[in-house]
Amino acid sequence: MKYTRLISVLLLGTALLAPAYTKAADRAAVIQHGIVEGFYGTPWTMSQRQNLLEFCAKHDMNTYIYAPKDDPYHREHWRDSYPAATLSQLTKLKKQLHKAGMEFIFAISPGNDLSFDGMKGYSDRRAMLHKLEELYSAGFRSFAIFFDDITDHSGAQQAEFISFITSEFIEKHPDCPPLLVVPTEYYLKDMKQDEQIKTYTREFSAGLPEAVTVLFTGQDVCPDGLKQEDLEEFSQLYPRQKIGVWWNYPVNDYMRQRPALGPVDKLPSQPGNVPFFFNPMEYPQLSCLTLATAAEYCRNPAAYDSEAAWKNAIKEQYGLLAPEMRLFAEEHQRFENDWAHIGRQDSPELKKLYQELFSSNENTQSLASELLNEEEKRLKAAQKLKSKLPGKLLKELKPALLSYIDDKEACIRLLKKLTAPNAHSIQIMLELKELRQEMTQR
Predict the structure, then answer these.
(1) pLDDT at 9 over 70
(2) Does the pTM exceed 0.85?
(3) Are residues 374 and 258 in the same domain?
(4) Rounded mean pLDDT, 392-417
(5) What's the rounded mean pLDDT across residues 406-431?
């Protein structure tokens, strides 16, 4: 009798999990892929989540990870129960995703103040079990525990905590899949020092249960692409566990004034059975442009063409405004600072024209005239977007759009001066160079 019951439980678990993969598995080479709501900033409203995840489901994405950094019950006050109204909304969303063939993974980030020893350690273990049991009772079955962006580097203790949760919760609920985990050292350059594996990574890897999936972001937090070799290197650091990718594009929480509007690019053509989760912006409508290309990549990585996918996504989402949006978007792709180097280069042809102007002692007026025509075209496109974009999109894009319009008008004023007879070109050129440099930094 007990064996019959065990088989029934196992079959129930399989039935509960199957819809999360069935639809997209038939179409996508990357079996598990989707988004992680993992940005810093205002979490999406429930309506925004529903709309974005409906979009993701239509594009055959099959996973959603709930992990908004500024949801207090996810991170800062992780021990506390979710308010009944919030939990009810999330449960409703989970059911909708289940019907659409998407898995809802509920993440908790306890690392800021998690205790491991003594009565505090015991209390925190019980608090995590209680939290997970509450979520389980509400209908959730897939869970993640994240240790990213914290100062604690207790690799062995974190791994032991994951092992405890696995044995005391996951394994006692046969319909729950293994945990998803993000380590504190979650990018390759942070996992080594002087070509040696750091103590944290070595101990965390050695102590983790084999069943968990460990996520990383590549060589850096926001790297300039992800190579096949990066997957192999990370897999060697976690040889017993399954690995996955947390891709930090189009997220822009470190440069919020600048939307990320390029395609995903420089990703491996043969990722194998490695899950991919893309971290969007705080702006869900604008994020759809990149996410459409991410879905296309996951559908067939070997045949993925970032330019074609990007153009198709703009045409699909912006219709008659596609030409104008393409001009604006091509100048909002690259994110570059001391530690972030991600996204395609912005408007390489426009950039080349400016470089020729700044390096030329001849044909200054001719080059300035060519640039003037180009910038006037882009200004006109931006003004049309400002007057014609639908309300939700315009609300998300308006701050960047207004700043862009101001910048273009300033460029045009200087370029007109350069094309004038007897222009004081040296001074004007210096002003134009300074303006262009300011524009690339915001």
Answers:
(1) no
(2) yes
(3) no
(4) 97
(5) 91
One domain for residues 281 and 361: no
Q: Does residue 209 have a cis peptide bond before it, meaning omega lies within 30 degrees of 0?
A: no
Q: How far is CA 85 from the centre of its chain?
A: 27
Residue 409 lies in a domain: yes
Q: pLDDT value at position 18? A: 36
- Kindly name the residue from 70, 113, 149, 224 that is annotated as catalytic: 149
Distance, CA of 69 to CA of 404 (rounded, Å): 29
Q: Indicate whether 74 and 196 sit together in one domain.
A: yes
Q: Is pLDDT above 80 for 28?
A: no
Q: For this structure, is 149 an active site residue?
A: yes
Q: In this structure, are 252 and 361 located in the same domain?
A: no
Instruction: State whether 141 and 279 are in the same domain.
Output: yes
Return the pLDDT at 12: 33
Read off the pLDDT of each residue in 96-122 and give the average, rounded to a whole number.
97
User: Which pLDDT tens digit goes with each residue over 148-171?
Assistant: 999 999 999 999 999 999 999 999
CATH no. for residue 173? 3.20.20.80
Q: How many domains does the chain have?
A: 2
Q: Please say if the pLDDT value at position 109 is more than 70.
A: yes
Instruction: Say whether both 230 and 355 belong to one domain.
Output: no
Q: Residue 406 is part of which domain span?
A: 348-440
Residue 142 falls inside a structural domain: yes
Quote the radius of gyration of the chain (alpha carbons, Å): 24
pLDDT at 41 over 60: yes
